[in-house]
Fold this protein.
Amino acid sequence: MVDEDDMIDDDDVADGEEDDEGEEDDEAEEDDEGELSSLEEEGEIAADYIEELLDIADLDGDIDMDVEGDRAVVSVVGATLDELVGDDGEVLEALQELTRLAVHRKTGIRARLMLDVGGFRARRRSELAELGRSVADEVERTGEPKKLRAMSPFERKIIHDAVALAGLRSESEGEEPNRRVVVFPGG
């Protein structure tokens, strides 16, 4: 809670009194760097885990690491690794969860990292955004709610975002692994 005595108004700064915002900015930067370094650490641990897995399975692939927003992203690129993606990304989802568990074991923190193999998630994101737009158009045209097939949390999030951009409302219903998105007409 901010005490009124600690607040600085524009008149105080204009009269030449120094504010302490510079110190706060330095602290915020340190926090951001601390968070970034922990995300980079998650990425490093995940990359090592995936690299070991590729070696054990005798599979080729290069590993890229990045930080997107508040999560580490580890991608296996440079090879066709369909066996690591599976039907509808099922193997990739399981591999991502195992990688998160490996990171958790080393750091003690539940990782939100995302794993991608061969650009599957990027392609899937594009397909799902298009599906969300087309379902939103259909629901708006017919005025009837539409229930989609069961999807992973990653897939549902993309559908929800696309539906919201179209100005309609959507909700998830059901229990994992049969949780699905329902799109409702506007108004």
Notes: The domain at 20-118 is CATH 3.30.300.20 (GMP Synthetase; Chain A, domain 3). The chain is about 55% helix and 20% strand. The mean pLDDT is 82. The longest helix spans residues 21-57.
